[in-house]
Amino acid sequence: MKNVLCARCIRCGKTYEPTPGLTTCACGGILDIEYDYDFIKQSATKAFFASCQERTMWRYRAFLPIEPQTPLPPLRVGATPLYDVPRLAKAAGIARLWLKDDGLNPTASLKDRASALAVVKAREAGAHTVACSSTGNAASSLAGNAAAAGLPAVIFVPSRAPQGKVAQLLIFGATVISVEGSYEDTFRLSAQAIEEYGWYNRNAAVNPYLMEGKKTVAFEIAEALGWEMPDYVAVSVGDGCTIAGVYKGFYDLHAAGLIERIPRLLSVQAAGCWPIHRALRENAPLRPMEENTLADSIAVGVPRNPDKAMNAIRASHGVTVEVTDEEILAAMRLMGRTCGVFGEPAGVAGTAGVLKAAAQGLIESGASVVSIVTGNGLKDTANGIRAAGEPIRMPPDMRRLRQALQERGVAQ
Length: 412
What we know:
Elements: E1 4-9, E2 15-16, E3 31-35, H1 37-41, H2 46-51, E4 82-84, H3 86-92, E5 96-101, H4 112-125, E6 130-133, H5 137-149, E7 153-158, H6 163-171, E8 175-179, H7 183-197, E9 200-201, H8 209-214, H9 216-224, E10 232-236, H10 241-255, E11 264-270, H11 275-282, H12 306-315, E12 319-323, H13 325-339, H14 345-359, E13 368-373, H15 381-388, H16 398-408
Parallel strand pairs: 5-13, 6-7, 6-9, 7-8, 10-11, 10-13, 11-12
Antiparallel strand pairs: 1-2, 1-3, 4-5
Helix pairs in contact: 4-5, 5-6, 9-10, 10-12, 13-14, 13-15
């Protein structure tokens, strides 16, 4: 990989050769992939992207740590839409707002980007099986991408994982282990099993390549906006890998001379589980928190990637905000009714954070913002109904229909 220099520990600075089976540093620190931007600049130009016919995340191969000869997985990951949503911007009280709908990836979440890269690296490592623990989306993305590539997958999920996500896992043929405990319990069991059986590790806290896949969402945002950066990019935060990946993507583009500045990150956590924000505000080591939120994908009481996440928020001069479950449900309704975009609770948390941050004056009324919708609402229909309400139920009676429509204020 001529574009990659090394993998460097963000804790002690030790460097490693970027081998496919790379995990954490000997000191226990998380590794970061470092690139040769002078080499990348030779091919990753605005002219190249303007003419490139590849319509997936692999159009950014110059920025990815993969061998030139490695076959790419077959699912079409990336190239998700960026919607200009003026009605939602007006509701938020800001100048400009876009939604990046990553719920339209093959398994309906942003995490397809990480799992697609994990499948590539598993092939390079000669792995026979891939495995991970997840609150749901990483699990379903790995199961789907592994199935398409012909790799068996073993998935560990906490028993609270929504049935929509569990159904995906089973349909994709994964071996699913539902763990009666927290996400921390689930992660610990998966780590023990991966070590014992020698499976390829897709866990974001251990595998430094996953963030490299996630960062492609930043490339797409930048390219869709003509390389002109918004003031803020809003990201829902659980483990911390996604927001770290978003920052890494913008950092790469800036280092390669494709953008003039890095946007500020708006980090959004659930009010029932915000350990990364607490550590930032206290300028103290991270302490575990209970997982008290309906946004299961960001209900992570012991984040496994906090250092990269906090580094990204600090480096971008970012803003942090917590949103309640009620604010998340309200954002689900508002997005659906003003934009036609259906996001799961964690997927809309970023937008809920935009609304709250604007109301509190944390972002300016003249700001331009991109909010990343990280997962589709069909993954958690129970909370979709909770947000939107039940349908009108009645017998086939026109008189009753007229009465019900009048009571609902529906135009007749």
